[in-house]
Every structure is written in structure tokens, then in C-alpha cells.
Amino acid sequence: TVKLPLAGKKVVVTAGPTLERIDPVRYISNFSSGKMGYAMAQAAVELGAETILISGPVSLAPPAGVELIRVESAAEMLQAVLDYYSAADYVVKSAAVADYRPKTIHEQKMKKKEGETSLELERTTDILKTLGEMKTTQRLVGFAAETTDALTYGKGKLESKNLDWIIVNDVTDPAGGFGSDENVVTLISRSGIEILFPAMEKKELAKQLLTTIVQEGTDSL
Ligand code: PMT
Question: Which Gene Ontology molecular function entries are recorded, alphabetically (predicted)?
């Protein structure tokens, strides 16, 4: 029998959007479908890892073999990730976490009034940055969703969040990004590796990305 590359390893994957409540009937969110993150979790299982999938609200069935933790908001996702962080070998942050949430969650439905209104927003905690600051032996893999200068901004996030790897998507590329079955990304490591993965199904892409990360991770970082 062949030993799978992630046998005996724990991988935590986050996926999907977060949902930030405004009142009992309204929220702020984004267009993440969870497909990329669910594909990363499936790839981790196939490579032999014990896989924890922490998912925002999506309509996908979880891949067989994962432990699924459902969360709603950025705050809940942070708590769930922290619960599993110290035991994790890899954390893969595919989720599109809200950067802002309403400053107050109204208990009753907000009534409409004449004229304009505005919503006061406050920052959420940057989960990945928090993990980067706490990092001991974990390998941290982030994603970056950019609409301009994708590689430059992606490399900035790799440094500022103390990541080992970042997977950069230019979400304006018609071949990939939010919601689609395919994606096109560049994988960048702290050690200077930079690999462009052409457009392909997210499931196949996830497998190639994780395989590369695990292989390179053992010798060159
Ligand atoms: O779900 P799909 O429809 O398949 O789409 C896939 C995807 C485009 C959502 C995915 O490939 C992707 O790029 N995910 C990351 C989206 C994102 O939030 O990127 P960002 O550049 O805003 O954030 C950078 C990194 O910091 C991400 O790993 C993110 O999870 C993390 N982050 C961001 C904000 C925050 N408060 N906490 C975080 O941990």
C-alpha cells in the first residue's frame, strides 16, 4: 500500500461567505458559493488528511469524510477556526470573510422611512492575520480575491498575514472566481515559488494546489 501524502495530518479548511446580520430579515454577504473551499476539503480527504471543513452558509453537500462545522458570521468562523488551530497541520482559508459588519444588529425589523438612510459598519477580525500572529508549526494557506494588480496585492497579503502560501485569484477573469465551476489562480510561496494554474475545474485545481503545497512544503520552506 502507498502512504497518502497527508496521512496522519490534520487539515482545517474554511469555505463559503460569511453572513452578517442587520436585523431579523436582512444581512450583508458576498457571492462566494463555497465551491473552491469544498473542493479544497475534498482534495485534503483524498490526500489522506483528517479534514475539518468550517463553512459559511452555502447550498453544497459536504464532501464525504469531512467533519463539517457550520457557521454564519465572521465572529463565529473565527471562534471555530481557533478551536481547531493548535492541533492543525495545515489551515486553508478559502472562505470569503466579511471585512465589515453592521455595528448594531437590530432586534426588530428596521422600518423604512422617507428618504435616504445609511448603515454604520465596523471591522470584523481578520481571521487569517490572527492565525498568522499565533502561528507555531502550522502551515497557513490563504486565498486572495483581487480585481486589480492581483499578484502585487496577493504578495502583500502573504507577507502581512505571515502566510506560507497564497492562492491568488483575479476575480474579474471570466474563467474563474466567485460562483463558477472553474478557476484560474497563481500559487505563491513565501520562499519565492510562483506557479500559474490555467483554467480548470475547481475540484481538479484543488487537488493540484494541495499536492504542490504538501510536496514543496516538506523540503523547501
Ligand atoms: O466560493 P466560490 O464561489 O468557489 O469562490 C471562490 C473564492 C473566489 C471565494 C475563493 O477562491 C477566494 O478567493 N477566497 C478568498 C476570498 C477573500 O476573502 O479574499 P480576501 O483577499 O478578501 O482575503 C484574503 C484572505 O484573508 C482570505 O484567505 C480570507 O479567508 C482571509 N480573511 C479575510 C478577511 C477576514 N476578516 N478574515 C480572513 O481570514
Answer: phosphopantothenate--cysteine ligase activity; phosphopantothenoylcysteine decarboxylase activity
Within a domain: residue 36? Answer: yes
Cα angle 205, 146, 88 (rounded to 5 degrees) comes to: 55
Q: Is the complex ipTM more than 0.85?
A: yes
Give nearest CA residue, ligand 1 atom 27. Answer: 143
| Enclosing domain of residue 182 | 10-98+122-219
Q: Is 183 a catalytic residue?
A: no
Q: Is residue 115 part of a domain?
A: no
**What is the tens place of the pLDDT at every residue in 4-45?**
999 999 999 999 999 999 999 999 999 999 999 999 999 999
State which H helix or E strand residue 215 sits in: helix 202-219
Q: Is 93 annotated as a binding residue?
A: no
Separation CA 91–CA 116 (nearest Å): 42
Torsion over CA: 51, 209, 63, 56 (sign): positive
**Which residues lie with the beta carbon below 6 Å from any ligand 1 atom?**
32-37, 74, 93-97, 99, 124, 126-128, 142-145, 157, 169, 171, 177-179
* pTM for this predicted structure: 0.96
Residue with cell 519565492: 192
- CATH number for the domain harbouring residue 173: 3.40.50.10300
Contacts of 218 (CB under 8 A, 6+ apart): none
Overall domain count for the chain? 1
